């Protein structure tokens, strides 16, 4: 493709995206495709001759778009927000256009240094402790960030090598029933094994991890010869945005000499607002590592997770390998960061550009306004639900997620759960909005996560109307 | 950013990228930035108020670009090519614009089904065995693909759980000294440990893995109680594009019941050309998994590695976890693929769009032409070097990489190595071209990897002139 062709087609794509965002509210939020529909619409074999670009946008509209669920729709309330904004899209476009590999400082210094700078900017914005400055890196996802934290913690804990008595001790990871599933996956990946993932009790009401039970488990496991490697506390769980008591958990970790990772994938970015700075409690004193996702609630498109280390040495010891073909003077000098040693893959996109573009465009002020709009709408929705005796809303909704359930007067719990799931499926199938669900204490709850930049008060009110229609019929 | 602002700024960015590619040949290939230069140019703190987009491209040109090494430069010959082409950039732009999460079929069916289709298209283009059809997925990198293969193999091998005798057997991985460093990293990540990575001998001339030594190691380890989990054979090693004898290695693996992963990160895509189909030898009969990177030599920007499984069950058993908040009817039905279970992270970009766009634009014909141009130029360069008695060129250069060294008449090996490294540093510092290096049999070799779509014969000739200038002074 010549530069002139790129100019022509590129501008068509820009217009296509702008048109898409302008028209998105008129589309059904959830795709109505059945399994196999998109596959069937696509040619079975690749073209022998190039087809040019002219037909691509038409094929996209005709064959692909019917299978797309619109995550940027103002009435998309499923899972957590995954915002794709103009400045972020353009930052990512610049990254694709430059096409540099940022695996090492030497392979394109700006890719490393801009990343160091925007990680520090984000630490500034969130008022994170000083120990994290200069120690942040972009990961593709919170899953990978937690895996890197676990690998670092395992290294610190001795890596499961046989002790002086020759006994190979099993290593243990501590989570709660509310911790994200990626932690159990990380334990499997890292060879810790699901059987060595210890599940700490939660408070039945707040769903927060119980530090006393953590203490008891750590004591019990150490006595049995296990090597406790890491505790993962969560600020804003995926299911209900529950908040683990990080200071109390941190105190227990310190006493037992165990690595504390704090996973604030969704909620951590709320700390751009001073009134949300409480999410950082305990980080300065206790956290060995911390992660949060600008690609969820901070207007940056996937993938962009930030992981900070209090001390980068255990991570570098766990993950560094330097083959001859990557040796270079800058690495040898020790004066530079090579981010390949901060992650699982070797290759790296220049992802810092999109975060730079987002922070420049919105400024601290714009980012705060975005968080406040989402959490304010969530408060308003929760109040509406609480005022209706046919529903029960979880009283704790500190961020942009509201969890609630229709009480279905007269139905058993199983019947009520089935009725709620049916209503959820009808709502999503209608295309008017998209919700997801969770299950707490045996009850299915609807999850309504608010946070798209296009979501306004009217979308919340319309959603609540539709929910009531389908759950009181 | 409103859609109208996005149209305006988006078109500026498209023009910026087109201008960049038009002017790239006039830039020094390697950045001249010193450590800290880019950091110092960037504001220390994030802006309080949004700065808009107008200043961003100016700041990019002023503060960031001096720190960029130009991987798309026609005289970039370092590492391996990492091509960023128009259709790929635009496919990725569409992915950013849509901003959908493809973690499960249910979260945006088209993201899954287009990926299944383009993985099959690629298998078609490369004439891969039928067992891989429907079993391919995009990974971020070859490192991650090899880790997923290893985790699947470990699961298949029994996961290191204690056997009936209660003995916890160590699991072993087999590579050669020429295998990519990501395999040792994968062993560390997966808890196999560097100590259980067994290094198989290579032929001192071809650098290909010795199947007889592999056989001996497997026999020895099994006798010692270890559980051999995986053998990784490489087609086109990173150092010199050596090719392991996959059929002979596969025969050994079959006899020992061990998983064979074939890593063809760089060279596998050459099979778009019938004359390169020999790179697939042994895959049909022996390979449990196979990976190659369209983001290296197939005109698709990073990240885009394809991983195929002969049988997806071990991978799914190793990596699937389904928490309540991700349950959905499509997943429960078993009728769909959920690619989150084919990788380490949970979240996924809609990466299939860029591969779709690339294959449509070039067609099989265009992709073949690209491979033939690169390998043809490499042959021509190797012939030039071979004709000059002051140099030694590795006789095997089956793809686009040529490895060679100045003989430095009269110098000891150490002195010659130092002189070669000095010449390499001078060449790279000149900005005229970029080479990397490796070390084989105690000798430093220069690596010249040809494969950027903008690289023409004249760039090769100019590079050879400059190399001779710096190595015969």
From TrEMBL, chains A, B:
GO terms for biological process: amino acid metabolic process; carboxylic acid metabolic process. InterPro entries: Aromatic_deC, PyrdxlP-dep_de-COase, PyrdxlP-dep_Trfase, PyrdxlP-dep_Trfase_major, PyrdxlP-dep_Trfase_small. Pfam families: Pyridoxal_deC (PF00282). The keyword Cell membrane does not apply. Its cofactor is pyridoxal 5'-phosphate. The keyword Transferase applies. One of its GO terms (cellular component) is cytoplasm. SUPFAM superfamilies: PLP-dependent transferases (SSF53383). Keywords: Aminotransferase, Decarboxylase, Lyase, Pyridoxal phosphate, Transferase. Transmembrane segments: none annotated. The modification N6-(pyridoxal phosphate)lysine is found at residue 296. It comes from the Bacteria. One of its GO terms (molecular function) is transaminase activity. Belongs to the group II decarboxylase family. This is Aminotransferase class V-fold PLP-dependent enzyme. It comes from Actinomadura harenae. The lineage of its organism: Bacteria, Bacillati, Actinomycetota, Actinomycetes, Streptosporangiales.
